[in-house]
Amino acid sequence: MPGVGPATESRLARLGLHTLQDLLFHLPLRYVDRTRITPMGSLRPGQEVLVQGQIDLAQIRFGRRRSLLCRISDGTGSVMLRFFHFNRAQQANLERGTTLRCWGQARAGARGMEMVHPEYRRVQEDAADGLEVALTPVYPATERLPQSVLRRLTTQALAALKSAPEALEDFLPERVSRNLALPRLHDAISLMHMPPPGTDTDQLLTGRHPAQRRLAFEELLAHQISLRLLRREVRTLRAPSLPAGNGNLLSRFLAGLEFKLTRAQQRTLRDVQRDLAAASPMLRLVQGDVGSGKTVIAAAAAVQALAAGYQAALMAPTELLAEQHRDNLSRWFTAMEIPVITLTGRVAGRERKQLLQRLADGELVMTVGTHALLQEGVSFGRLGLVVIDEQHRFGVHQRLALLEKGANQDTFPHQLVLTATPIPRTLAMTLFADLDVSVIDELPPGRQPVQTVVTSADRRAEIMQGIRNACAQGRQAYWVCPRIEESDDDQFQAAEETARMLTEQLSTLRIGLVHGRMPGRERDRAMQAFRAGTFDVLVATTVIEVGVDVPNATLMVIENAERLGLAQLHQLRGRIGRGQHASNCLLLYQAPLAALARARLETMRATTDGFVIAEKDLELRGPGEILGSRQTGLQRLRVADLARDARLIPQVQRVADMMIERHPDRLAALTARWVSPDAALGSV
Ligand code: ADP
Ligand code: MG
Question: Quick one: which ligand is closest to 328's CA?
Fold first, then answer.
């Protein structure tokens, strides 16, 4: 392209832009509106706007920092322009009476609205010319590759497209676009980059323009297709068939449990049993709220694998959880004489060597472990089933590694994934198009829903009394200190401080402490002590978020609750309400509480249903936040927004089926446009 030298080329490459097509699909993140002048009297903080008015004051202020202040007004109000860097000429230009047009972000200053370092130029009084005729796109950019350059290159790319339209193929069959009332690709792309005058501004600014819908549709379609293809590939792999048989170990296991499976558990177990019997690998996600009883499903699956003569392994995200699983499984498996062994980072030396030998020899054991299962030197002789607990803690690549690890010549183990993160249906369909999903949507009987109260952290006396009351009745309490700043240091210091404060104020109670900075052993000792009732109150950072089971704990205080996501609050709260006693959760916030934070805490107060909470979270925050893109391998979507575009998904699925069947030749090019090869949306 003319005007693109090696320097620009390498900067473009850093954004993943190599071809004209890449540029065309490098879509605006948002738009700014420079088509009209906003009256100053109607400005709200945060708005990016054009204002125009007369200078009625310009002076240099010598404060902590020298600054040039310039007040302009337009009859409806005034705005203070503030410059920290300026020169003499600039100062001379800003004379009283001059009319300025400024572009910048309004913010609330000490005395009314301000703009810091706005773009500005002098104009004739009352001039209304020189306004943009359409919205201005804002692209994902880097420091050395400013908007102006991206706009120029995009304009060139659009011109090239106009002269050679066939270079960019519209893969969506015309009939489909027509039926769904979606514009054709070229029209959508050029509108996105250069919205013509008269484009519905509100639609475009809120992402609801048909052009955006068209591209969102194609983006979701590309992800859907790429997951379907992945899944199809997995279906062609072979796995050992592990039929349940009859009169077997599995029924002995179920009969020996201290409880009866809920209906939802039975349904899920039937899905799993059927998958295990098949000769291609199971890829099933079991979604169930905290406490819904996913572990026993994993155990039953393991029994079925072992009964069929294969090893089973369960991978948990922390040592603490691995050990808790080991304890449960050992208890359930003793009657059946199935050995349960643990493989964590702590197992070392000769012990480790012996364990590894047993696994490699194919001895029929249940292995419970952490990431240590993925280490070099760990190999299974006859691995039939891999269970991954709390899936969102593991990346796609770790799951793949585990699948590979179990591969034996050309057979692969079955994979069962357990997650307590309730994923809204629409999101699940998109993220896990490659997985089958079973949902445990029922809690074991006898659970009492947790009562949640949202309260200001100032009301310390009442909070302390609440803890005393619970402990006087023989119950236990968690006090959670989430991280406030980005650093972990801060978090554990806050926890230590809180522990000191509680020890002082609750002198008759025994206070324990766990945080992520403690050596694993010490942390577990504290956790075990809390479980055994040695402490009344456990002060914790968010390390207790996942899986820990202490039924006697019935009170949880969460500090700075307004800073946590709903999903995380839900996980934390799931630690209580596990026994027969009524439980209470206190969500403390620092006043004043912003409206959005209030809405989120109100959701927590109003419901304990993880799916309702997840839907709300999706609505309030968007999908990346729910799952944590880093953890899921969730690629950032360019145009689509899973909350906003949820309605499209059923159609996306239908069209994906049709495309795979009728247009197999288009699939590779279509997915290449949207899905980067190492960051496919979702997971295997
Ligand atoms: P999660 O789904 O959060 O992993 P767990 O598997 O840890 O939940 O189960 C939570 C608790 O409920 C455990 O103590 C478990 O033994 C118990 N439990 C599981 N299923 C049932 C059931 N059907 N009836 C009664 N208790 C159950
Ligand atoms: Mg669990």
Answer: 1
Question: What is the position in ligand 1's atom list of the atom closest to the CA of 262?
Answer: 23
Ligand 2: centre distance to CA 3 (Å): 57
Dihedral class, residue 475 (left if φ above 0, else alpha if ψ from -120 to 50, else beta) = beta
State the closest ligand 1 atom to the C-alpha of 295, by its place in the atom list counted from 1: 6
Nearest CA to ligand 1 atom 20: 293
Relative to the CA of 446, which ligand 1 atom is closest?
A: 25
CB 323 within 8 Å of CB 524? yes
For 4, residues 6+ apart whose C-beta sits below 8 A from its C-beta are 12, 153
Cα 208 to Cα 336: distance, rounded to the nearest angstrom: 59
CA-to-CA separations, 518 to 351, 427, 511, 514, in angstroms, rounded: 25, 36, 16, 7
Cβ of residue 419 lying under 6 Å from some atom of ligand 1: no
Ligand nearest to the CA of 291: 1
CA distance 478 to 556: 5
Instruction: Tell me which of 2.20.28.120, 3.30.70.240, 2.40.50.140, 3.50.80.10 is the CATH number of domain 36-122.
Output: 2.40.50.140
Start and end residues for every CATH 2.40.50.140 domain found in the chain: 36-122
**Given the CA of residue 296, which atom of ligand 1 is nearest to it?**
6
Does the CB atom of residue 262 touch ligand 1 within 6 A? yes
Q: Are 341 and 414 within 8 A, CB to CB?
A: no
pLDDT tens track for 475-495: 999 999 886 554 555 566 788
How far, in Å, is the centroid of ligand 2 from the Cα of 389? 7
Nearest CA to ligand 1 atom 24: 444
Q: If you average pLDDT over residues 338-344, what whole number do you get? A: 93
Taking the domain 249-440, which CATH number applies?
3.40.50.300
Confidence of residue 682 (pLDDT cuts 50, 70, 90): very low
Please work out whether the CB of residue 327 comes within 6 Å of at least one atom of ligand 1: no
| 248 confidence band (pLDDT: 50, 70, 90) | confident
Closest CA to 56 of 86, 76, 79: 79
| Nearest atom (ligand 1) to Cα of 265 | 23
Residue 268 Cα to ligand 1 midpoint, Å, equals 14
Closest ligand to the CA of 389? 2
Q: Please choose from 258, 263, 295, 387 the residue to mutate so as to test ligand 1's pocket, defined by most ligand atoms within 8 A of CB.
A: 295
Q: Cα(259) to centroid of ligand 1, in Å?
A: 9
Please report the pLDDT score of residue 398 as a whole number: 61
* CA 681–ligand 1 middle distance (angstroms): 31
pLDDT band at 508 (very low <50, low <70, confident <90, very high): very high
Q: Give the pLDDT mean for 48-61.
A: 92
For residue 214, pLDDT beyond 80 = yes
Of residues 411 and 542, more confidently modeled: 411
Residue 199 contacts by C-beta under 8 Å, 6 or more apart in sequence?
134, 135, 191, 209
Identify the DSSP state of 145.
Answer: B
Mean pLDDT of 108-124: 88
| Cβ of residue 293 lying under 6 Å from some atom of ligand 1 | yes
Per-residue pLDDT of 464-476, as tens digits, reads: 999 999 999 999 9
pLDDT over 90, % of the chain: 46
pLDDT tens per residue, range 518-569: 887 788 788 889 989 999 999 998 766 555 778 899 999 999 898 888 878 8
Q: What are phi and psi of 189, to 5 degrees?
A: -65, -45
Express each pLDDT in 634-663 by its tens digit. Answer: 456 788 877 788 788 889 989 999 999 999
Fold classification of 450-607 is Rossmann fold (3.40.50)
Task: Dig out the tokens for 347 from the structure.
Answer: 């197992």
Residues of the chain with CATH 3.40.50.300: 249-440, 450-607
Counts of helices then strands in the chain (DSSP H, E) = 25, 22
Residue-level pLDDT at 683: 33
